[in-house]
Design a protein that fits this description.
Length: 200
Amino acid sequence: MEEVAPGIWHWTARHPRIGLDVSSYYLSDSGVLLDPLAPDDVMVRLEELGPPREILLTNRHHWRDCSKLAQRFGIRVRAPRPGMHEFSDDQPVDAFDFGEELAGGAVIAYEVGAICPDESALHIPAVNALAVADGVIHYDGLRFVPDNLMDEPLRTKAGLRSAYRGLADELDFHHLLTAHGEPVVGGAREALRDFAENGG
């Protein structure tokens, strides 16, 4: 785990299903985990930093190690309401709505949509960050996921561009916390706006 900006801890771990490294985050001041995949060494480090108080998912596909974390720390998970059909009765998850303030007001949920109905972005003003799900990834620059992971690539990309352009225009943030790829530390608002206009 590395503190990539004050109060933002980042790490990567190999996802057992997709066979790729994915990113997870811990917001130490608010005790919020984002899209966590947590090997044993991460579990120990979380206890050292101060036990997490809540888990937030940017979409339904990022359950990852939530069951293990929820049991160990006695916390619940929150995920976007349009994706709640995906979860089973034994998964400790509650819905949140777009526009809702989460984690005691530390995080605000925004709708992205386009790639899936529950695709969200989570704005965390206290740490100047925006967390995103699968609509944009960061491997050697911001980019879309491959076309074969989209039902209608042209329409999906247009919808994502529109959503990210709106977020970049409306919100103030310096860091972009991607679930796939490294975070963008510094200059993220401008990078997301440029991606919405020119990326692909």
